[in-house]
Amino acid sequence: MYGVPRLVTNDLERAQLSNSFGVLLHSDILEAEGAKGVLYTEDFTDIDILEAFARVLKDEVVLRLLTREVLTKSSKAPLPDGVGDKGLGPQKHWDMLKLVQPNLPALEILDGDNEKNKAPDSITGNAESIQRLRWRRYEIESYLVDEAPLKRFVEKRLGGVEAAATAVDELHAKLKFLEGKDETDPLVKRYFESEPISKTLLPDLMIAAGLDVPKREFYEIAAQFLPEEVHPEIVERIAQIKQAFGV
Q1: In this predicted model, what pLDDT tens digit does every residue of 77-128 receive, in sequence order?
Q2: How would you write the chain as a 3-class SS string?
Q3: What distance in Å separates the CA atoms of residue 204 and residue 207, rounded to the nearest whole number?
Q4: pTM of the entire predicted model
């Protein structure tokens, strides 16, 4: 069931391995043994949104990766569920996992606003170094701002088109500032690069529609997209996730 453990080769590795068993979850060690890799995102909600978009796109390969074949960890959630935003971090967590599974690829997907790590995008498909991608917009929730799927989400929450008519009008009014514009407009581009949508626009839209929708449920908005409405960068990143884990 499990592979053959690699022998430690020196005192430094022996000390690192001992330290890893004091930090890593037992479940992390077991899951890493049979995993295709480990995926780090800044929040667990990022994975939920990626999964929802994968379902919309009917991409069974990446959906299988995200739900069963890779170990997913949040770089900001505290231990034991995440790797902690202080102290451990994805790089150290992965270094420890590699003492157990040396051929384990890793991918870290960073928010566009991440100032701590300015490393360029790098997809190699191997375990020589941690692979990284960065959203071009502020965060993954930025790609949920599309009036048609937001309208369908509100209608579903409120019980249909007729029941949601007033809420949809309020939604439309809140999005008026984007009407007829796209990312070729420098102001729109700058807005999505600098605005923490998950904390500002999306909650405001939900309040305007008379809904209380916490961030952990924003993936349900992604589920309302049609394939042709999914932002090209989401499609690109999903392809890169597959490349990073060799599928």
Answers
A1: 666 666 765 557 899 889 988 888 899 999 999 999 877 667 789 999 999 9
A2: CCCCCCCCCCHHHHHHHHHHHHHCCHHHHHHHHHCCEEEEECCHHHHHHHHHHHHHCCCHHHHHHHHHHEEEEECCCCCCCCCCCCCCHHHHHHHHHHHHCCCCCEEEEECCCCCCCCCCCECCCCCCCCEEEECCCCCHHHHHCCHHHHHHHHHHHHCCCCCCHHHHHHHHHHCHHHCCCCCCCHHHHHHHHHCCCCCCHHHHHHHHCCCCCCHHHCHHHHCCCCHHHCCHHHHHHHHHHHHHCCC
A3: 5
A4: 0.88
Q: What digits encode the pLDDT tens for the residues 174-195?
A: 999 999 898 899 999 999 999 9
CB atoms within 10 A of CB 141: 25
Give the C-alpha separation, 25 to 132, whole Å.
Answer: 23
As a whole number of angstroms, the distance between CA 32 and CA 100 comes to 8
Do residues 209 and 167 make contact, with C-beta atoms less than 8 angstroms apart? yes
Instruction: Retrieve residue 65's tokens.
Output: 């990766």
Distance CA 173, CA 97 (A): 49
pLDDT in tens, 5-26: 454 455 455 455 545 555 677 7
**Residue showing tokens 């790098």:** 122
Count CA atoms within 13 Å of residue 228 on its CB side. 1
The token duo for 200 is: 């500002």
Euclidean distance between CA atoms 55 and 143, whole angstroms: 16
